[in-house]
What we know:
The protein has 147 residues and is mostly helical. 60% of the residues lie in helices and 5% in strands. A hairpin with a 5-residue loop joins strand 2 (44-46) and strand 3.
Amino acid sequence: xxxxxxxxxxxxxxxxxxxxxxxxxxxxxxxxxxxxxxxxxxxxxxxxxxxxxxxxxxxxxxxxxxxxxxxxxxxxxxxxxxxxxxxxxxxxxxxxxxxxxxxxxxxxxxxxxxxxxxxxxxxxxxxxxxxxxxxxxxxxxxxxxxx
Length: 147
């Protein structure tokens, strides 16, 4: 996170990519990628020598991207949300919809993992350290490949 003095210093002049990286804690490569896929479009300009120059508003934008990613939103979803904001609208309904979808997906993953754990528990409970030779001769691991 950037300090208040750095934030105040940055409010008036464009930032170079190294400064944005330092202030956000993101690698330069990530910032370039986010720009290339359109996440930073309204906050980036090019200098005469083609260097990226960032409006200080990019700091808030990147903070949103980091937070949204931490909740499992994809970059495509984040781009959709930012496009709504760039039209001057609050994207809170869209954010909520995406978060609800991700919550449901996590619930389904948890259920699938619990089922897998139950199957593993059953498999391990019936594990034979020395399976019968006829069974062992026709499988790689008889405990995992019942006849």
